[in-house]
Amino acid sequence: MTESSQDFRGFDIVRRGYDRAQVDAYLRHLAGGTAPAAPPAFDLARRGYDRAQVDARIAELRAG
């Protein structure tokens, strides 16, 4: 079972993860229907979002 948008609580912060600002911007575009068709490529950053969680959430949102 997947979490609905109302149940989603965010991503864990890890030592080396995806750049938080880039992920947040991409998710805003995705929610607004303006995300690019190509898969996102985020920079790695200290104290970034957990990569596996971000990848899973984006796949879930893109699948509808």
Quick rundown:
The chain is an alpha+beta fold and 64 residues long. It has helices at residues 20-31, 51-63, and strands spanning 13-18, 44-49.
Entry keywords:
about 60 residues, alpha+beta, 2 helices, about 20% strand
Question: How is the secondary structure organized here?
Answer:
Elements lengths: L12 E6 L1 H12 L12 E6 L1 H13 L1
Antiparallel strand pairs: 1-2
Helix pairs in contact: 1-2
Number of domains: 1
Please tell me what the overall shape is: globular
Give me the number of helical elements.
2
Low-confidence stretches: none
Mean pLDDT: 88
The helicity comes to 25-40%
List the helices and strands in order: EHEH
The largest sheet, given as strand count, sense and whether it forms a barrel, is: 2 strands, antiparallel
Residues in β-strands, percent: 15-25%
Secondary-structure-based class equals alpha+beta
**What's the β-strand tally?**
2
Q: What is the CA–CA distance across the termini?
A: 14 Å
Strand order of the largest sheet: 1-2
Rg calc: 11 Å
Provide structural commentary.
By secondary structure, this protein is of the alpha+beta class. It has one domain. Helix content is 39%, strand content 19%. The protein is built from two helices and two strands. It has helices at 20-31, 51-63; strands at 13-18, 44-49. It has a two-stranded antiparallel sheet with strand order 1-2. Helix 1 packs parallel to helix 2. The two termini are 14 Å apart. The model has no long low-confidence stretch (mean pLDDT 88).
